């Protein structure tokens, strides 16, 4: 019975948020109020609120309560290495990856510079994938992997999760990444492969991904439609000393 109430709270409030009945920024009823409303325990209410927060419907602020999030945007973490598949599962939305290119190529000059390699000594895997969320292609990912580190990369792997393959099959120790974020004019390929509507600019996230031994093995250019994504991070002010924090990757 407790399980049914927990799911009932989640389903009713997620539905009200999706339909817009509860607008972004609305404060949710307190745990005590929900417990009285559903004639259940606060522990059951906490489970429902936790699931709502986990799936991106609400944001819990300590000592203030829970607030409805804008479901028109999806949060991408600035910090951490989170794959697109993991992000999709977390937000609980229908998603699909469309592979437009997946082949081995000579290293272009700009990619050789990004990967810091001699273009005459290497080949790279070029993978171009459109990310469709709820029927709209709102992300275009362009990935380049060193073939001496990733010798095989099939279209089937790219359609699923490349990082699952790299870590699970090739046993690579992916450690950290540097991230550069900018807003740029949408190019011809963006308009062709993305559902940009009337937007003329895209958010571009350039990722430089390193293995545990500090080898730079992947360069990614992830292009996002302006209205659909916001990039978030948690920052704490350091007292008594200067502290530098690098930004990390989020897409694979």
From TrEMBL:
Alphabetically ordered keywords of this record: DNA-binding, Transcription, Transcription regulation
Top-level division of the source organism's lineage: Bacteria
SUPFAM superfamilies: Chorismate lyase-like (SSF64288), Winged helix' DNA-binding domain (SSF46785)
CDD domains assigned to the protein according to its UniProt record, in alphabetical order: WHTH_GntR
Keyword DNA-binding: yes
Stretches assigned to the HTH gntR-type domain: 3-71
InterPro entries: Bact_HTH_transcr_reg, Chorismate_lyase_/UTRA_dom_sf, TreR, Tscrpt_reg_HTH_GntR, UTRA, WH-like_DNA-bd_sf, WH_DNA-bd_sf
Keyword Magnesium: no
Gene3D superfamilies per record: Chorismate lyase-like, Winged helix-like DNA-binding domain superfamily/Winged helix DNA-binding domain
Name this protein carries in UniProt: Trehalose operon repressor
Annotated organism of origin: Paenibacillus peoriae
């Amino acid at each position: 019975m407790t399980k049914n109430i927990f799911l009932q709270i989640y389903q009713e409030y997620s539905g009200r948020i999706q339909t817009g009945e509860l607008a972004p920024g609305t404060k949710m009823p307190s745990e005590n109020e929900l417990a009285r409303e559903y004639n259940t325990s606060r522990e059951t209410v906490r489970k429902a609120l936790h699931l709502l927060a986990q799936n991106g419907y609400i944001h819990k602020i300590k000592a203030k309560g829970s607030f409805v999030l804008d479901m028109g945007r999806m949060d991408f973490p600035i910090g951490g290495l989170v794959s697109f598949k993991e992000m999709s599962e977390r937000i609980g939305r229908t998603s699909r990856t469309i592979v437009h290119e997946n082949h081995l190529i000579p290293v272009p000059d700009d990619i050789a510079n990004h990967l810091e390699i001699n273009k005459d000594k290497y080949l790279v895997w070029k993978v171009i994938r459109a990310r469709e969320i709820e029927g709209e292609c709102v992300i275009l990912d362009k990935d380049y992997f060193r073939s001496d580190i990733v010798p095989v990369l099939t279209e089937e792997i790219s359609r699923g999760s490349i990082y699952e393959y790299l870590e699970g099959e090739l046993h690579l120790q992916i450690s950290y990444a540097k991230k550069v974020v900018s807003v740029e004019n949408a190019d011809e390929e963006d308009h062709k492969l993305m559902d940009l509507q009337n937007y003329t600019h895209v958010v571009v996230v350039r990722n430089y991904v390193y293995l545990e031994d500090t080898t730079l093995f992947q360069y990614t250019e992830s292009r996002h439609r302006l209205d659909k994504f916001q990039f978030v991070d948690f920052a704490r002010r350091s007292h008594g000393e200067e502290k530098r924090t690098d930004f990390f990757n989020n897409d694979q």
